[in-house]
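Page 47, continued from p. 46.
Same chain as before, 231 aa.
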Amino acid sequence: KDASISGSEMILTPAQSSKNGVAVFKDKVDVTKDFTVDFTFKIEGPFGGGGADGIIFIATKYSPSELQSFNTSGKWITNHINNFFYVDFDTYLNGGYDSQAHSISIKYPADQKLALGTAGYLNCNEMVHANYGSRRMATWNPGNTTTEFHGTRYVRINYTAATGVWKVYYSQSAIAGEGDVKITHTYKLENLPADNSKIELVDGKYLYLGVSGATGAAWEKHSLTSLTINN
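Result:
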C-alpha cells in the first residue's frame, strides 16, 4: 500500500507511523522445484519510538492483485491473509511474545481460521502466543538485541523441494556461504488440504513470493535494494 520507488531502491515504508508496503514477484513459483530468493534490505531512521517493525519474507497463495486489495494500514500484510509461510526479521520487542527486539523467526500459522475456529485472523504477535498454539517454529537471536538490522543487510532464503528443508542466510555483508546460515528448518510445501499446519498451494504446486515491511505506533524506514529469485 505504501511502497514506492526511489532511484534503485524500493521503499517499503517511509519512516512514519502506520505504514505497510510489499514487493511480490508477479509470477507464481513452482514449489515442487527448488528455489532461492536473495534480497538486500536497508533499515534506517529516523527511528520513532525506538523503531519498528521490520522486514518479512512471505510465501502465500495470494496474487499481487489480491494482496493489493487488503486494507493493511498500520499492520503487517500477514495480519490480513490466511495460509502463508514467512520469515520475520523483527525489530520491535512485543512484551509477552518476543524474547528480544531484533531476531529472525520462521512462522507459519497456515490456516488461522481453522486454528481459531472463527472467521477472524490473528495478528503477527498473537499467532505465536501459546494460547493459540505456537507457530514460531525456529528463531535466531543475535547478540545485538536492538540495532542488529539497522543499515544494509543481506538475506538468502533457500528451499529444497525434495526434503522440505529451508535455510535462512543472513549477513551484514554479501552472503559468503554456509557460514551465514542462521536457521535450518524442515517444512515441506505439499498439495495437501489446508489445516492448522499446512499451507494451501495454487493449482497444487504454486505460491507467490515477496518481501514486506511495516510500521505501527513506532517506525523506521524499510527499503529493498535488490530482490532476485532462482527457481
